[in-house]
Amino acid sequence: MLSSLRRVFRTKSSLESKTKEKPASETSQNPLDRKRTTYLYSGVHILHKSENDDVDIVFVHGLKGDCYKTWKAGNATEPWPKTLLPLELGTARVLTYSYDSTVTGKGDVPSQNRISNHAQNLLAALATLRQNDDTSERPIIFVCHSLGGLALVMAHERAQQHLEDIANFTRGVIFLGTPHRGSSLAKIGELVSRSYGMIKETNTDIVRVLTEDSEVRARIQDSFLSLIKMRSKNEASMIDITCFYEELPTKRLGLIVPKHSAILPGYTAIAIHRNHAEMTKFSSSDEPGFQYVSGELKRWMKRIQQNPSKFQKQAVAHFMVPYTHNADFVGRAEILELLKSQLACLDTASHNTEHRRAALYGLGGVGKTQVAIAYSYWLQGVSKDTSIFWIHASSAERFSEGYANIAKQCNIPGYRDSGFDALTSVRDWLESKDSGKWMIIIDNADDMQMFVPQTEDTTKDRSLGQFIPDCANGTVLITTRNMQVGSRLTKGKHPIEVGKMDEHESTQLLRRGLQYGDETLMDLLQLSSRLEFLPLALVQAAAFIRENCIPVSEYLELLNGSENDVVELLSEEFEVGGRASDTPRPVAQTWMLSFQQIKRRYPFAGEVLSLMSWFDRQAIPLEFLEFYGEGKKRAESNIRMQLVKALGLLKAFCFVRTELGGNYNMHRLVQLVTRTWLTREGTVTVFAREALLAVSEFYPYGTFEDIDTCTIYLAHATSALRAPMAESEEDRLLRASILHRLGGYYLYQGRYNEAEKLQEESIAIRTELLEEDHPETLVVMSDLAATLCDQYRLDEAEVLEVRIMETWKRTRGEEHYQTLDAMSNLAVTLSSQGRPGEAEALNRHVMEVRKRILGEEHPDTLISMNNLSKTLLDQERPEEAIGIHRHVLEVQKRIQGPEHPDALLSMGNLARSLFSQGDLGETEELQKEVMDMTKRVLGEEHPMTLLSMQNLADTWRCMGEFCDPAMSIRIEVIGDALALYKECARLREQLLGPGHADTQETYAVLEVCQELLDRAIKELNAASTEQRRSKRQKHTTAGIRWSSPTQLLIRPLPAYLWESGRDPEFSDRYGPTLLCACSIPSWCFVLLLNTPDYSGDEVGTELIF
Region Disordered: start and end of each range (predicted)? Predict the structure, then answer.
């Protein structure tokens, strides 16, 4: 493709060479007829005029064209605007403008004028002509081809003050193949430049503007369209627009300006069946293209001529809001009412006495600008005589530009002068009575440094805050992401926060954005929730769904992807109204702009935000941030104050919030975007490591005393471990340390699978970097052995513990505390394996050494005694075990407290010892106490709580087995045992899984208990039948006299039977049918069973006590 382009341009170049070689006599002396070599006619040329002209029509050619050839058909001697058009338009003066539009040149040097230079030259030449013949107030219509259209757009967007009348009197524009969104001409120009190198020079500024992603061109277009929309609200100043586009491709180049680039949304678009160069050349008035163009011109001229007075300058209230009314705006009624109250725009009395200001603040993308637009249109509707001005405050340049626009629009005296101070003059004019009533909206005022003086010397103060007018006849509305700016600019008033939408508002916004009603409310609510009910994110999602024709459910699947996938979705470009051209549209880019502002304003705040992004987003502890500040800011005084200021700025931008406990929450999507920003900044591993350091400093090992802290910080530790880390030895060992501590917490909680994975990873890192026999490696191995033992993988645990014990003996000695810990752990494993003799020997040795070294009442000594008593019980020596248990329990209660887990474990072991001797009464009492306290202290799902539940259920089941079959209390006790087994089985399956040995054991005894209950009920029925037969007496409730509860000994009906009686299976299983359960006095229930009389005579009732 490149070589063919070279051949095309070489052919063209050769033709130009032949032209240059022609004798001077062969060329016309008319500058418009002469083919350009080194001279170009520049300026305005009159093609047609008459005495009755009342409209000027100006033709502007495009790239590589000129004011003559662009409009002349191949076989014509004159351009059609000179020969054909005057016949159709009798009272129009026809002008043509010529300029050097070449982008490349060989031999000749191409003009280096930018489009903006051509635009200014156009206005200057046209203004001079109209001033000279006194036609300055004549309406103008432009007909522009290709690049000429961009020149005109820029001329209107950047008109200097003394040339403004040209823009003010423009009433129509015809665009012929104008590249509003870029053109392939840019690529062609680049290829030409590369192919000729130094021989052929290129006007790179023009080529750059023609590219599809040109920010300059996009901003100019946005500003021009805003101007058109603003003027369309007043018939006296409205500008008609029609866009023509080429239908045929240019040979070898294709469509130079495709349709999507040549048209403007919302304006008339007409096709011409020609290629880009030929679409401006008409040889006959019968050609369709000529009829289309002349028809538009005739229609516009007729409108102008029907009522010329409408098109004269009129003094009206100004409405300079650069956005159309958003028909998709929903909700925010409460905020709008607050604005109406604070600004009191309809309160005549307040307008005469006080100046009012209000500020809207909130997270970028939350809809502050949309609320301001909605308010401005409401005010325009209710107060026709109030001028409304809009100032973009994203930069000082745009702020000044907005003031300059006000000066021009309102014809403020002196605005045409070269030394005009727009900021001061506009402020003074607005504060005068000449301006009338007004409201000014300052949008995106985020940068404190722009608006607040940075020096104490007021004579050098050029901060923009001083130029905001302050008078009773006007109000000011500010939108900002920075609450601090809003507070300053409203002179201390608390800004109005624009928060996330509610469910109704967000689903309504999505339905309008999706433009079809096939999605379920549940899908829309789920999407709203995933996007945090943030309006800009919802509009962006709707645009993506609509443009890619996918259902909401598929978009939700994309959101379920990785963090990078989510941020990529939040970075998708889309069209949305109510955002300035220099304001990023995607949510992610909007927030990254705020990050940069924070970083510039207060770098430490940017660091804190970066650090917080690697913790869990909720309940981030202040001490984590203080630890970072002390580590990084040791040279500075008052770290606390520095942190308060940093967090204050982050809260002002709504990136973080303070919760009641003093911790901080971070917006979920903001956290994801912050991490992406750090990736682009190249500082991901820096702040991920700082987060891990903070967690390492404060996350304890999972012991009873620290378990609350472990639980609170668990989410932060897990989040920090997921962060990308550098592979340095120091960082890896830091990770291993936190893995070890988390594993200990999971072991304590009975989450054995999770504990094992973390412990194995920690061991792998420490083994690689520190060796297998290193103390830190052995400590994690010991925890892993405990985890294996609790999973009944006893052989694996034994092998590991023997190795640990031998290593400690070799490296630390027989009586080192770590050696003793290893022996004690091995003894527990041996006991679980059914080797009580070996376990007893180890336990006695450990106990004796600990007594000698640590003392008899040291917690570790007491644990050894407790373990020893268990091995004695396993050897059927309950008396010895009970004695040791009672002593240990008494000491633990006194030293550690009755609710310490060690004391609770001893209490449970004592109960099991008593159970083995048949003392069910004290056993039940102890086990009830243990279960109640473990639930309260450790939680309902803790392994020790579940063990205490099963032990108590075992005791109740045993008690039920020994009850008299004729006693109904037997059913109650067994029923209570069955209910407790069921609850224990459910919780164990939930915590440990269905395959764990403890879970399977509970289900096994549950089945035994169910069979026992079935048998007990049958035996009770049989005993009751036998009793009736012997007495030959039928009992009914009719014969019972109820006096007082103290005179009637009736045991309350067990809750288990009462609940079972509601189930039809009760009658199928047990025979009798439940008729009712009535409250006899208020304190008991009676179960009435309808039982057949075995004599076959009648059916009676039985009262079971």
Answer: 1-33
